[in-house]
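Subgroup meeting minutes
Present: P.N., E.W., G.H.
Scribe: E.W.

1. P.N. recapped why we're keeping a running log of single-chain structure predictions: easier to compare across weeks, and new members can see raw inputs and outputs side by side.
2. G.H. added today's entry (304 aa).
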Amino acid sequence: MEIATLYTYFKECGRVTTDTRNCPEGSMFIALKGETFNGNAFAKQALEKGCRYAVVDEAQYADDPNIFLVDDCLKTLQMLAREHRRQMGTPIVGITGTNGKTTTKELIATVLQKRYNVLYTQGNLNNHIGVPLTLLGLTEEHEMAVVEMGANHPGDIKELVEIAEPDYGVITNVGMAHLQGFGSLEGVIRTKGELYDYLRTTERKTIFLNHDNDYLKGIADGLTAICYGQFADEKVKVRGEFTACAPYLRFRWNVDGGNWYEVATQLIGSYNLDNALCAATVGTHFGITAEEISAALAAYTPTN
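Output recorded in log:
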């Protein structure tokens, strides 16, 4: 079945599921496979539990007019998500990085929610299945989306950005953690940099850049960088500095060297200053006031 045709059926349903333990009435079930399970075998059960349609990739299970046969269910899920993303046209901030991406994603979403209806990745559903499921949750009510993307191997981010097609990008950092699968720090940088590579092909080419990170500055050529950091520099739009961290982070920040704003967060760890400054920079770019940003950062309670 062609994606365009399947998409018309998806629009009838409004949501998808890949788990027969969660079959919202009228939804579309997509049968995924793993090492120890085969979702195809549960397609009929999904219909019995309330799904309107099911999608399988093994012909023996396509034995009902409401069960559609495709070549590859995972690929179909991803292509369906990309089609939905294109149809919605919602501005998307894509985020990746070695550390801090989940906290930064939640901080950005918290700040943007001061003015916008925001869809954002739940938990750490940031892989080749989680990203499509997030995108398929977009509705007409959503004004912005923040999509987290994780990677275990080279090419993972390239695959995810080609599904999500973000308009803006954040790489929180690149580091030595989780080198297995990447081979070296250079492999990590190249993989995370696949987000930047994609954005170079778009019209906006806009990233939110930690100006203190030389690795990230080194791969940002050809992009419009809106910078944040802890050190004064003419390129730094949002600057912040610690005031305390015992144990909760307190800091002050300003925009373009203007008035300082004090924030007492519920975040533990000095490393969260960069995450908070990133969220402040994104919020500033999208018209959230400094007062609103400070209030959002102070109110955020970590869940991860």
